[in-house]
Please model this.
Amino acid sequence: MKNLVIVESPTKARTLSKYLGSDYRVEASMGHIRDLPKSELGIDTENNFEPKYVVPRDKVKKVNELKKIAKTAENLWLATDPDREGEAIAWHLQYLLTESKGMAKIPTSRVAFHEITESAIKEAFEDPREVDLRLVDAQQARRVLDRIVGYKLSPLLWRKVKSGLSAGRVQSVALRLIVEREAEVNAFKAVEYWSIEADLKSGAGHFIANLIEKDGKKLVINNQIEANNHVKALEAAEYKISRIAKKEVRKFPAPPFTTSTLQQTSSNRLGMSAKKTMMIAQTLYEHGLITYMRTDSVNLSTQAISQARSYIETNFGKNYVPQSARVYKTKSKVAQEAHEAIRPTNINVTGETLKTSEGMTRDYIRVYELIWKRMMASQMSEAVMDQTSVDVTAASSYLFRATGSTIKFDGWLKVFGKVIEEEEEGEKDSQSLPELKENESLSLLTLLPNQHFTEPPPRFNEASLIKKLEELGIGRPSTYAPILSTIQDRYYVEKREKKFFPTELGITVNNFLMKYFPDIFDYTFTAEMEDNLDSIATGEKQWKPIISSFYKPFAEKLEKVEGEAERVKVIAEETDKDCPECGKKLVIKFGKFGKFLACSGFPDCKHTESYEQAVDAICPDCGGEIVMRKTKKGRPFYGCRNWPNCKFASWTKPKKADS
Model:
């Protein structure tokens, strides 16, 4: 065999095979084929932090297969993903297949491409390179750092908090954000305030205006008595338009997607988790439909921009093509993961096209359409709005204001719909105003006083947590989805109505870590460590000195905490259910397989039962209470509390009890 090409997955292998001739055999490594051992730290802290790599038991068969094939090859091509993880996989493959015992040294080339298209593959194979050891070192540094924190801190948590717990360098910082936000919510004291709207009629129609000032000062209405006094003064007042201001507002499109913005928008628009979004994006990439999906770059190739502009002019008209191409600058200090933003590899392939493609389910098409629309919109003309602001005076001392806007030219909105920034922040569309004139007298139809209360900061959802992590410089494109999954899998947080709530277990773990290791889980320190990893990737720093400078004070702190810290008890959350054996209240506890209910009278009463979280919905079959359950594989579903008498089960939440 002349050429052996190795990629990570079978799907990627099949797609690549379409573009390579019969002289190439493409095999899949099925991800990483060497890693640190699970049974031990696997890092020689006394010998310059040298990692001890092993072939995991479940990869031995695959490695032996690849070795057998490699012995018959004249050339080895490593075509793993174009990021640090992909570079590390290529490095491990090169060692096992050309340098390990019993293997012959054969010519080895690293080929990297950011899209699986014929032109990109051809270009990559014509211009191969060596494995980039800077990227490998950056990946090793992160792996070693995370292993040290996890394998050294977790046993401490077992002894001081609860057996079976684990800690992670970045995941614990994400947990801290959620716990601190929950504390803010719980400490928040709502303050009452009132607003007053006026429904006003002109000759051309009516509109709503908001009371904003009195005697030239911002008006604050604290209670109903004050509101009623203002209403009384305004009921018999004369209303006149004192000012009309019109201006043209231009709304520019957002850049094409990066990993984090794709995850955020997919969460907001499609209701998809980051984990599911990335799984779908990975498949779309491996089928050659989109460019590489782990990136913090908003750059686009000149060819992609040219194709988009041509498509826009053909399908929407010249007015929708800006005079010059839109070029976006990456905000990230080191956009190391890929050279381009996430975009379709062929702009002519639309979501409608994919509906006839084998294996493309509704969710795959929805994510692809999101990527296609965002890319297309990014190269379209700006939307033009006519925005009008109307000031209305009443009783000489009161000022009302109404605003409205109309779309003069839809531009990129023709493709993407609403202005996504406003949509994500939950802003409402402004009203349409009738034709109005300055000094025009108006008739009062009704006054609408409304009671409000100030609201606490919102709990994080997936989109806002990813956005916050990115703002703080914590994590990188490949880490956001695993971070969110890990803190849920460990039962440190749970998701209710798409919001993150810390569990008692999560709060206890966070409080312990923040009490004894505040420097390690400090936001600034974690962000600086990410910058150090980026510096390793660019060759500015070496990885072992960075690990060394971290490890010495960390080891000293561990030893000190081991001797000083007292054991902390996790406070079990009490439920309203009674124990069927002794009558005491059941409490929620956490075990190896997640939540379960146990008697608060333990150890005198050892009753336990499965935990089923009730949701605000009724069973459509019997009217019983709906609870959240999980399949044997861990997938959540909705079922009736009256099972087995009622067999109702659904993947989607039934209607609420009051709807």
Q: What stands out?
A: Confidence is low (pLDDT under 50) at residues 419-428.
